[in-house]
Task: structure prediction
Amino acid sequence: MQDVNADSQSAQQTGPSAALPGRLAVPAGILTAVVGAFAYVGAVDPNEPGHYPVCPLLAYAGVYCPGCGGLRSAHAFVHGDLLTALHDNAMAVVAYVGFAALWTLWVVRTVRGRPSRIDLGPVHLWSLGAVLMIFTVVRNLPFGGWLHP
Result:
C-alpha cells in the first residue's frame, strides 16, 4: 500500500511544475552572464584608456564599426545615463532593450510550457544586416558625426 502512495507522490512531483526550475536554468544562466558582464563594464570605466582593447578597425583604418562605442554605451546605460548611452552607440541601446524583451518573452513562454523558438526568416536577417550596414555607413559620413562615439 505504501508503494502506491509513493508512486502517486512521485508522479505529482514530476509534473509540469516540477520541471519548471530545470526549464528556467538556461534563461537564468544567460541572464546571470549578461548581468555579470554589465556589472563589470559598469565598474570598470571604458572611458579610461588601458582597460579594454581598442577596436582594430578604428585603430588601423579610422572607420567606426557598428560596435564602436558599445562598451561606453553599456557603461552609461548601467549608470542610468540614457542620452550618453544613445550618443555612444544607439544601435547597442536598441540591442539592450531588444535583448530584455526577447529574454522576457522566452521566460514567459517557458513558464507556460510553450516552445520558445524565434524563427527569423531570410527577410528578417537581411533587414537586420541592412540596418547595421546603413548605421555603419552613416556614422562614418561627414553628416553622421552625431553617431560617432
In short: The CA atoms of residues 105 and 119 lie 14 Å apart. Residues 90-111 form the longest helix (22 residues). The radius of gyration is 22 Å.
